Amino acid sequence: MRDALWLAFRYALHYRLRSAILVICVSIAMFLPAAVHVLVGYYNRIMIDRADQTPLVIGAKGSAYDLVLNTLYFKGRIEQRLTMASADEAAKDGLATIIPMHIAYTAEGVPLVGTTLDYFSFRNLKVARGTSPQLLGDVVLGAAAARRLRLAPGDRLKSDQERVYDITSSYPLLMRVVGVLEETGTADDMVALTDIKTTWIIAGIGHGHTAAQKVTDPSLLLGATDTSVVMSPSLVDHAEVTPELLDSFHFHGPPDEYPVTSLVALPRNAKSHTILKARYRESADAQAVAPRTIVNSMMDIVFRVKQFLDAIFVMVLISTGLFLLLVVLLSLRIRKREFQTLSKIGSSRSTVLAIQTSEIVLLVGASAILAGAMLGMLVWCVVRFSLLL
Fold first, then answer.
1. Any long-range contacts for 4-8 (C-beta under 8 Å, 24+ apart)?
2. What's the CA gap between 24 and 27, in Å, rounded?
3. Are the C-beta atoms of 266 and 122 separated by less than 8 Å?
4. Using an 8 Å Cβ cutoff, are 185 and 385 in contact?
5. Vertex 131: Cα angle to 103 and 250 (nearest 5)
6. Buried b / exposed e across 117-145, counting CB within 10 Å, b at 16+?
7. Residues 6+ apart with CB under 8 A from 36
8. Which residue from 139, 144, 140, 130 is spatially nearest to 185, judged by alpha carbons?
9. Terminus of the chain with fewer CB atoms < 10 Å: N or C?
């Protein structure tokens, strides 16, 4: 058998172009179904794990899918908002710890998540370099986001302006990168986390003004008395919260009217979980959603698509097998004189059959190795660069 393998190897090496084409075709046919199976399984695991860690999500009435995707995975946008009054209402009986979330903006294409320090404890997020957000304008990057943006503690990150030609919209805010989180393998790796008040500044609810005594343009001073100065509304808000100007930043309107996109509720126990869900079931303005239920529904759709793809891959494998059989049969006809020569010099029919079998084994084995290498590279890229997050 060793001699048959050696002859088969030398034959494949001699016809290296044909052998390479066959190996590539067969390896692709092996790689595609394996890749879909592995990636869907991985995607299902990270989706389910994150949903299991989040007992309840509270949001305005609307699409439960949008609510869960935005709050847990920072995808999409929630048009209908709650307010901080809703957070106070949810926490009033002490049934749950309430974490407000404001996820409406991006910074250099990375989702900007406004929340509180309770979120860091809830998700078990640890700072690998630097510190957690401590002041207005501080931001902490997920590990993958820091790699993508090539930023480190001490750098600056500017929020994206949504409406470039709308002069009534808020100005982009230049934030200080104060830390980078440890790798978690979750959606938190691909975001920028900041205090919720910082996102309110981007929303235009909070801002700072240049001190009146520093204004040199008389047109910006509309009037003055012994106790006050009237400033022009054309005075541009600060685009950065610096330590020197921190005290000048303030917020307009009642605090209970400040917006939040959603609330993460962490009930004290199973009874509190049931009471909260029942309370919001009767609400006309808000809803409480169990993320696991929504994720299971979404993954059911994914697995249905996977079943359809599996059927296609079965047909691809069958067609590849028939193609390989055709190649072998044509090869037998072309090599008829070669096998007759082997027979004349004393080779038995079993030896000739062993050589042919060895060629197929080498072809399939090389294809499996190549397909495995491609699958390993794909999984590494997905995990390394958080492509499914």
1. 4/351, 4/354, 4/355, 4/357, 4/358, 5/358, 5/361, 5/362, 7/355, 7/358, 8/355, 8/358, 8/359, 8/361, 8/362
2. 5
3. yes
4. no
5. 55
6. eebbebbebebebbebbeebbbbbbbbbb
7. 306, 309, 310, 313
8. 144
9. N
Cβ atoms of residues 76 and 115 within 8 Å: no
Per-position DSSP letters for 11-57, written without gaps between them: HHHHTHHHHHHHHHHHHHHHHHHHHHHHHHHHHHHHHHHHHHT--EE
Residue 350 amino acid letter = S
Strands 110-115 and 192-195: parallel
DSSP notation for 164-204: TT-TTSPPP-EEEEEEEEPP-SSGGGG-EEEEHHHHHHHTT
| Rounded (5°) CA angle 235-165-234 | 10
**Both tokens assigned to 119:** 């979120």
From first CA to last CA, the distance across the chain in angstroms is 49
Q: Residue 104: how many CB atoms within 10 A of its CB?
A: 21
Are 276 and 265 spatial neighbours (Cβ–Cβ below 8 Å)? Answer: yes
Residues in the chain: 389
CA 311, CA 304: separation in Å to the nearest integer? 11
Both structure tokens of 218 = 């008389």
Distances, alpha carbon 93 to alpha carbons 97, 169, 261, in Å: 10, 38, 22
CB 57 within 8 A of CB 263: yes
* Token pair listed for 77: 């946008």
Return the DSSP state at 2. Answer: H
Amino acid at 56: L
Cβ–Cβ < 8 Å for 187, 125: no
Tokens standing for residue 17: 């172009």
